[in-house]
Amino acid sequence: MTEIAGRNALITGAASGIGRQVALKLARLGANVVLWDLRAENLAAVVEELKRATGRAAHGFVCDVADREAVYAAASQVKREVGPVHILVNSAGVVTGKPFLQCSDEAIERTLAVNTLALFWTCKSFLPDMIRAGVGHVVTVASAAGVVGVAKLSDYCASKWAAVGFDESLRMELRKAAPGVKTTLVCTHYVNTGMFRGVRSRFPWLLPILKEASVAERIVQGIRRNRPRVWMPPLVYLVPLLRILPVRLFDAIASLLGVNSAMDEFAGRAENDRGQASRS
Predict the structure, then answer these.
(1) Nearest residue to 78 (alpha-carbon basis) of 25, 12, 5
(2) 182 pairs with which residues across the strands?
(3) Cα–Cα dist 182/167, whole Å
(4) Maximum CA pair distance of the chain?
(5) Which CATH number do you get for residue 195?
(6) Which residues contact 142 (CB under 8 A, 6 or more apart)?
(7) What residue numbers bound the domain in which 65 lies?
(8) Number of structural domains in the chain
(9) By three-state DSSP, how is residue 32 classified?
(10) Residue 271: its pLDDT value, please?
(11) How wide is the angle at C-alpha 209 spanned by C-alphas 205 and 214, nearest 5°?
(12) Is residue 280 part of a domain?
């Protein structure tokens, strides 16, 4: 079990969506919550919400996780003002949601910077303290799009596949170097945070649009119980097994399930163009 009460927990993309929900749940369990987000006004609102909900202070820092030097500077400030981070939840994410050839170079770079490279900068900032202490927890909020390719999500899928590989490699290293430091990989179907506003599920009973509070609860349970994976819904666990099928059959099943039509009515939200929103 990972102890939460009295621990310092840092959540990126914490001003909305899953990040906000995880922050609230960890705070109610007694964690000293540190919130990172690019949107100062939203961040301040969540800090105040946490204070009202728990009666305890929360710490908010404006930080663009795509900027390596900004991450390192903010991390140093956190260590000075709050102390070492024991639980790191990498939840910040962006999505372009366009066919590959309609994705601008800048949008592709932004997606990879926020969804993938930021994982390296935050872990390099906080993991050494966890290793020295022999205890800690790193959560990587990836996506079901990190285990199956989806039309109109080429940059997003690439970034999340990289996140899945990052988590697995990190888990293997920590098993040898610091077995007391645990990791949790989160891969979910679409979540109703607004980041993927407009997406549709062909079979909601099989691939439902998930509720952010339910996903956040499962993430917190995963932290407490040291679960290496939190994948939702259960069908996501079958995707790796389906890869033993011929490619044509695999693609046909994906199309039948509506995987490649889900983004047809995608609208997203304005923050996706430049900000960081907790992943949906």
Answers:
(1) 12
(2) 137
(3) 10
(4) 56
(5) 3.40.50.720
(6) 160, 163, 164, 167, 185, 186, 187
(7) 8-272
(8) 1
(9) strand
(10) 47
(11) 100
(12) no
Among 74, 66, 68, 46, residue whose Cα is nearest residue 58: 46
Residue 38: count other Cβ atoms within 10 Å of its Cβ.
Answer: 24
Residue 180, Cβ density class (10 Å: 0-12 exposed, 13-18 middle, ≥19 buried): middle
The SS3 assignment for 277 reads strand
- What is the Cα gyration radius of the chain? 18
Instruction: Report how far residue 10's alpha carbon sits from residue 34's, in angstroms, rounded to the nearest whole number.
Output: 5
End-to-end CA distance of the chain: 27
User: What does the alpha-carbon distance between residue 130 and residue 163 come to, in Å, rounded to a whole number?
Assistant: 20
Q: Is 2 contained in some domain?
A: no
Which two three-digit tokens encode residue 81? Answer: 């003002």
Neighbours of 229 (CB within 10 A): 15
Confirm whether 3 is domain-assigned.
no
Positive or negative, the Cα torsion across 246, 250, 253, 255? negative
In this structure, is residue 167 part of a structural domain?
yes
CA distance 280 to 268: 10
Q: Average pLDDT per run of 10 along the chain, which is 280 residues long? A: 93 97 96 97 96 92 98 98 98 97 98 98 98 97 97 98 98 96 98 93 96 97 98 96 97 96 86 44
State residue 270's pLDDT score: 52
**Cβ partners under 8 Å of residue 103, min gap 6:** 96, 154, 155
DSSP 8-state code for residue 181: E
Look-up of token digits 């995707």: 239
Give me the active site residues, please. Answer: 156
- Would you state the pLDDT for residue 173? 97
Structure tokens at 21: 């929900």
Element (H, E) at 35: strand 32-37
